[in-house]
Write a sequence for this structure.
């Protein structure tokens, strides 16, 4: 668990989130999902990228999740999915969504697809850029279909980036965009045009910040 010790404070989340997780945990105590609420004791995390585009019926949600450890990003172990109503009318916003996300055709947010997602993530901590904003629609969908939102501990890489830059260079204003943060820490941006590319870049930025923290300790 050394991988997690240096930023344990970032896991706490808001009081509202903690209360919601506890309520979900109790409700799922006697279901097959109970293990997702157990503390994770390994050394892996899951980098998650997510984008939602509203439509007249329900949002289209594209996401990618990739497993990482202290030394490696395992792009061979990736989960890429677009959730929505198959046959939704093609409009300009959806075409732009598909172009930006490159996460495959729209598939139904049924129990099989959502089960596959939560089982892939498991109870491992999640890392990602601006997680609260990015996964809100996904958590709403999970709550509606599975009766719980993602219960995982979370590390917002945006907050970690800002914290470390203030610590090392208090006179410098932290860049606010993901692309600027990657450039700040010299993290490659190849493949950023897809959800998988964004998830991989989030994982690499997280690992880079971990090395910076270790060197400064």
């Amino acid at each position: 668990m050394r991988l997690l010790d240096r930023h344990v404070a970032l896991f706490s989340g808001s009081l509202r989130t903690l209360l919601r997780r506890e309520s979900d945990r109790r409700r799922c105590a006697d279901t097959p999902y109970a293990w997702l609420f157990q503390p994770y004791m390994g050394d892996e995390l899951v980098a998650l990228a997510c984008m939602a585009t509203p439509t007249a019926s329900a949002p289209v949600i594209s996401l990618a999740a990739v497993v990482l450890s202290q030394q490696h990003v395992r792009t061979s172990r990736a989960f890429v999915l677009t959730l929505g109503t198959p046959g939704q009318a093609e409009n300009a916003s959806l075409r732009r969504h598909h172009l930006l996300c490159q996460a495959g055709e729209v598939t139904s947010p049924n129990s099989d697809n959502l089960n596959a997602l939560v089982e892939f993530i498991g109870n491992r901590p999640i890392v990602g850029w601006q997680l609260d904003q990015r996964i809100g629609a996904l958590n709403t969908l999970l709550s509606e279909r599975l009766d719980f939102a993602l219960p995982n501990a979370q590390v917002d890489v945006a907050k970690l980036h800002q914290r470390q830059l203030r610590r090392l260079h208090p006179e410098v204003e932290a860049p606010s965009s993901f692309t600027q943060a990657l450039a700040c820490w010299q993290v490659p941006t190849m493949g950023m045009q897809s959800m998988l590319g964004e998830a991989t870049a989030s994982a690499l930025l997280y690992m880079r910040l971990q090395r910076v923290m270790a060197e400064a300790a």
Observations:
- The radius of gyration is 17 Å.
- Confidence is low (pLDDT under 50) at residues 1-12.
